[in-house]
Amino acid sequence: xxxxxxxxxxxxxxxxxxxxxxxxxxxxxxxxxxxxxxxxxxxxxxxxxxxxxxxxxxxxxxxxxxxxxxxxxxxxxxxxxxxxxxxxxxxxxxxxxxxxxxxxxxxxxxxxxxxxxxxxxxxxxxxxxxxxxxxxxxxxxxxxxxxxxxxxxxxxxxxxxxxxxxxxxxxxxxxxxxxxxxxxxxxxxxxxxxxxxxxxxxxxxxxxxxxxxxxxxxxxxxxxxxxxxxxxxxxxxxxxxxxxxxxxxxxxxxxxxxxxxxxxxxxxxxxxxxxxxxxxxxxxxxxxxxxxxxxxxxxxxxxxxxxxxxxxxxxxxxxxxxxxxxxxxxxxxxxxxxxxxxxxxxxxxxxxxxxxxxxxxxxxxxxxxxxxxxxxxxxx
Length: 380
What we know:
With 380 residues, the chain is an alpha+beta fold. It has helices at 36-39, 42-51, 101-110, 131-141, 220-228, 288-306, 319-325, 329-340, and strands at 2-9, 12-17, 29-34, 56-61, 65-67, 70-72, 76-82, 87-94, 117-124, 147-152, 164-166, 174-181, 185-192, 196-208, 211-215, 218-219, 244-247, 254-257, 259-263, 268-271, 280-285, 312-318, 345-351, 354-357, 364-367, 371-378. The longest helix is centred in the last third of the chain and has 19 residues, at 288-306.
């Protein structure tokens, strides 16, 4: 496996890391994560197609691009890879063609050949797609041995339109899957948040998918505002500082749910993932050092699985973490890069949601506010 890393801006590559002299015309997979206005521009795809004529080209809009130890904005970070024995298959669906994200997720996996499938990397629209339902649909039909990771496209901090494309101009509402096949493919993954829970465990008593009306039979928004105290005046922006932890049914594992919006008239809160009735939740708060430590621990989870650093590390972190960490944001990327070492090519983006298992190679879950890592390599 060979991987090169490039940065695209103003119609050209502005920086290139190509330690193994990868021949661009032989690249099999190109993944680009970047500013929405650049990703959707036809000339961006046309340029990449000219540079990498034989590759599957996947583009995804972001809320910030990861290039080695740097977090950039207004660029496209591009990884180009060739494999010795690993093969790939791709699929794409449009959310508007289905009655729900659950059905879209099922269809996406069912369009992949199953024999020899090891990993499905999913990049989804981040505005129109319910990430929780997408994950449930994919888990419903995937074989037990298949790892699914990925994330939802971003749109800086605007939360308007996101774009994903496969071998063509990116569009809103698309969901792309890349399937990886081969016995010599070496995979690893990790996903951690680093948030601190506080207060009592509570129960969601009235909700509809990702809209919450009542917690402990009390109005959810009133309860939340009471907990925020002085930060309540800064809603909805301050909600990023205080997500909820959700304990998964039948498990002690938790995932994080971020508030997308509040409705002061209906007195509801809309989250970036589902909070079903009966779910156990706790309020959470940010601790900068723990957020950064969690990124390092996510890399440690990868190393525990393979006992070796990956050739390519795909980092998908949450826009909420980027906003909260501010000028310290590169510290979480640096923590991952330092765990893996100089031999690992680090790429990725800031997203509207992350997809990864909680336990090694188990069913995937939908996360908010985590650092999620997928590691790829090939045995010689």
